[in-house]
Design goal:
By secondary structure, the protein is of the alpha+beta class. 23% of the residues lie in helices and 29% in strands. It has 3 domains: 92 residues, Rossmann fold (3-Layer(aba) Sandwich); 54 residues, Threonyl-tRNA Synthetase, Chain A, domain 2 (2-Layer Sandwich); 50 residues. It contains 5 helices and 11 strands; from the N terminus they run E-H-E-H-E-E-E-E-E-H-H-H-E-E-E-E. The radius of gyration is 23 Å and the shape is elongated.
């Protein structure tokens, strides 16, 4: 049991830090982990991995502290780690959980709605078989199964890096429709778009769904 006032916390990634990137061995980190426990320093693990992936690793490392999953999607705090449950946490499955990202279920629902509106097929991680994920990622089948058990969605993207669904382009000055066609059984319009960014004028061509106005 710890108090929030007297606990020193160290936050660490897993791959390439506590775990060897090639072998996933934690042997090289054993001395450091032992020293942290001896000094009473709380170790918080942080990773892009899912909770299902993290739990066997924590068991192997004899880790008893909080851990962060899915690139900051949520913080899992074992019951009893603090005297009182942190504000805003939810008690579930042996943890006090603070979620920062939207649920993966909501993402899946949004993807299906996009498929319906645009009459296209979107294949995500959750649509693939374990064998497909294993081949795509290089993970063993058992590890691939754990990687598929996503619970959250976090998108820490710079706005300039996000592909817009609406047709307007960054720095757009003018657009002219120059053609039309049918794409995936839907009417589409081709636009010539003039943009200006950083003092530079550029010309782009962009297909837009005629009914929804969504860039294709």
């Amino acid at each position: 049991m710890n108090s929030t006032a007297d606990t020193v916390v160290l936050i660490s990634d897993l791959d390439g830090t506590l775990l060897d990137t090639a072998t996933y061995s934690s042997k090289a980190a054993t001395e450091a982990l032992t020293a942290l426990k001896a000094e009473g320093i709380s170790l918080v693990l942080s990773s892009s991995k899912t909770r299902a992936e993290m739990e066997p690793i924590r068991k192997r490392l004899a880790h008893e502290g909080p851990f962060i999953v899915e690139n900051g999607g949520a913080l899992f705090i074992p019951h009893g780690f603090f005297r009182h449950a942190p504000e805003g946490s939810t008690s579930r499955e042996g943890y006090e959980i603070i979620e920062f990202g939207a649920s993966y279920r909501s993402l899946r629902a949004a993807m299906k709605e996009i498929e319906r509106v645009l009459k296209i097929t979107i294949r995500g991680f959750g649509d693939m078989s374990v064998e497909e994920v294993s081949k795509l990622t290089g993970l063993a089948p058992g590890e691939a199964m754990l990687a598929q058990q996503r619970e959250l969605l976090v998108m820490p993207l710079d706005p300039d890096d996000v592909l817009p669904l609406q047709p307007a382009l960054p720095g757009e000055r003018h657009r002219t429709q120059v053609g039309e066609a049918t794409a995936v059984d839907r009417a589409a319009q081709l636009f010539e778009v003039q943009t200006e960014r950083n003092g530079r004028t550029e010309r782009w061509y962009e297909w837009v769904d005629a009914e929804t106005g969504v860039a294709l």
